[in-house]
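Final report, section 2: Outcomes. Of the targets proposed, Tyrosine--tRNA ligase is the one most frequently requested by collaborating groups, and we therefore present its record in full.
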Amino acid sequence: MTEFRSSLLKLLDERGYIHQLTDAEGLDALASKEIVTGYIGFDATAPSLHVGSLVQIMILRRMQQAGHKPIVLMGGGTTKVGDPTGKDESRKLLTDAEIDANIAGIRRVFERFLTFGEGPTDAVMVNNDDWLSKLEYVPFLRDVGRHFTINRMLTFDSVRLRLDREQPLTFLEFNYMILQAYDFLELSRRHGLRLQLGGSDQWGNIVNGIELTRRIEGTEVFGVTTPLITNPDGSKMGKTAQGAVWLNEEQLSAYDYWQFWRNTDDSSVGKFLRLFTDLPLEEVERLEALPGAGINEAKIVLATEATAMLHGREAASAATDTARATFEQGGSGDNLPTLSVGEGVSLAHALTQLGFTPSNKEARRKIAEGAVRLNDEAVSDAALVVEVGGEPVKLSLGKKRHALLVR
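The predicted structure is given below as tokens.
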């Protein structure tokens, strides 16, 4: 590890958040002597963020814990354009009302992780639509566009990916990197911003913002990127066969969120404890060193702490108790996800409706393999219609996916 002087970079480094720094020495010196204001942008493409955004949410939390000021930038303006980074096709264009509703849903997540207010280190949430939608096109081209060359823009991965695959890249999306760079400049003017943070795929966009701000304002600003968090097979963390792991409870129950963390691969437990909980590093080291089956204790701690941070300690305890009743005591648990089946539902359809399988075809395959149980009894009839009387029916897929079917 690099030896940093500032509490900010020490904290980020020891918990595994740093992938790249534009000027480590300069940022370390600045953070040692004054409060640094830093931001991350989030486009409002859905009513909730998902686990894939959690590293970015947590690094803003770490900023605040280290005595600095986080800015959450909602991309009300850039959402109208669409970030081409990592995309093979254009995003669906949303209306202003849809974007506003999405921002309202996303704000609730941030209120769990950050303290908002008027104080010097209190977080603020701003919307780049406040300035982007007021820009005049010709003055913007003259004052900002002249600092960007097409030659360099064509080298960005977000652009080359589309061109190499012969996928259309609209002029609208091509402008996204300029607008994101302009956000950095505007935030430095409005809020004294000195730092942009983001995932490793945002490195080029962050560097653009730094260079634009230095050229126009002469301000010394900095960038930090976080490592890409992947599963052991190389896939992005947070993507499951059942879909995205959403952070809002309307999209995913606290119990299912707890289960996501409980199912962490053994090799990732220590890393996730550092990144996604506030546990002291000494405790993290103890947990990740537990021998043999003891790693399951660490996974339960990870699941409980991560769930408590998002959904509250009571919801985390309820999820833990439900899991214990389900797995250790053979019960059904009171907080399992439920599916109302009315007069009845085919077993395959129930599995798909619950998100246990991505399709009815996959559900029938799982049934044929003997992986599905009703009230802990294996079933093999893929055409079975499940009818529910007065008592709920417990539906299980494998050892880790359980739900209650109710009338």
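The radius of gyration is 24 Å.
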